[in-house]
Design brief:
The protein is about 65% helix and about 0% strand. By secondary structure, the chain is an all-alpha fold. The termini are far apart.
Amino acid sequence: MTRKPIELPLGSGQKFVADMRAYFAAETELKKDEIAARQLHRLSQHLRPGDKKLRLSDVRKMFELLRDEMDGQ
């Protein structure tokens, strides 16, 4: 059975990208953790019942993977 895609509020993508850029520009690990935690909270609000719980390390990994994707364009 195919799951219906999650519908995120308008502007969520721009906020994610802005946070991702701020994450890589941050000078301290504490600031990076704050940014990743903010995104974790935003993304967790849109999980459906039965979805795997996100962790801070998941958000950090998303940032890394997407940066690599954006650099390749």
